[in-house]
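Morning run. Coffee first, then this:
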Amino acid sequence: MSEPEFVHLHVHSQYSMLEGAIRVKELCSRVKELGMPAVALTDHGNMHGAIDFYQKANAAGIQPILGCEVALGHAFPGDRPDKHGLHRSYHLPMLASSEQGYRNLIALVSRAWLDVPEGVQAQTDLEVLSRHARGLVVMTGCLGGLVPQGLLQHSPDVARATLGTLKEMLDPGHLFIELQDHGLLEQSPLNRCLLELAKELDLPVVASNDAHYLKRDDAGAQRALTCIAAGMSLDEAEQSGMQSEEMFLKSPREMAEVFGDVPGALANSVRIAEMCKLKLELGKPVLPNFRDVDGKVVEAIDDYFAGLCRGGLEKRFASFRKQAKRVDPNKYRERLEVEIKVICGMKFPGYFLIVQDFINWGKANGVPVGPGRGSGAGSLVAYALGITDIDPIPYDLLFERFLNPERVSMPDFDVDFCMLKRGRVID
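And here it is:
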């Protein structure tokens, strides 16, 4: 009898904030050992392990699927917001099927942490998801998921409406009804209801196992980890009735024993893996777009950068005149043009503009800033832009020690801010 095909799409690693005990390297080895071609990482509320996982999975010959189990704040009928104006959050696993999906997932996770008050559990909502839904494959999740809780707390009508909302905002064919069975009391009747909704709404079903540890023997260690996260004792956890020893990385055959009677449930995990063959280009610097004083993205950045450098040098000349300091302006201007040409040729104007922006903001807002040190002090551009306050010309400091076309690497300014006020610059 041939081995059934199956891919784990719901895995929580050591990066999952005391909710997962799986180490990424061991995960990849175990997936390969079990004969699965791919695996998805869906840590709760963060993507800290995404790149580590992506690199190690590729190195092991396993297809990495990048995802996250996002906390979605949602108001079911009759729900009231808390003192922060937030509603209870529910889980929603999302996988990146494209580069656009990956960027949308990053945006959703970032917004989830930034849009809530400090000290409050990160969450986003359906309105934000609707703006970042392209390229995402969404599954309905575990018992704590948005759709399962709509069923358990309310009714099939509420769950049906929620599924309709999700289906409308996602790409066609990117919403899956997720079935899980960890031996928990509610799961069997819940799965029956989910299957009925899937048939009614013509939605595909996919089997998953919410894997928080690699092997069944690891359940005890995971239980201790969960207790630490929840601030409860092992006895209290036992009495809660929510413990299971089935949340491990099961083999395709073990999954077939549970879901073999649900047509397509296992095969759809492989189908999702085929949809999520994301390729990331790593190792190249990615800089934010620089915005001008009006908040608009600077399009002709080389010209903008060169103009700012030349204007900054003229301000330095004005300062020299006030100090009765005699210099050869042509020597400075020639050196400045050489540096501008190198910096633009290496595509680093954005870096210089961003650095000068926060350094000059600090200087203008009463934050003491050091004059500059290290090889960056050899740049006349840095001096003209106010990044450093050291004139490199009288000391024959070499720009090439800082930035050299023959050795392409990111420029790196050493900047010293007052330890008592640097938080203001970071903010």
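The chain has a mean pLDDT of 92. Good start to the day.
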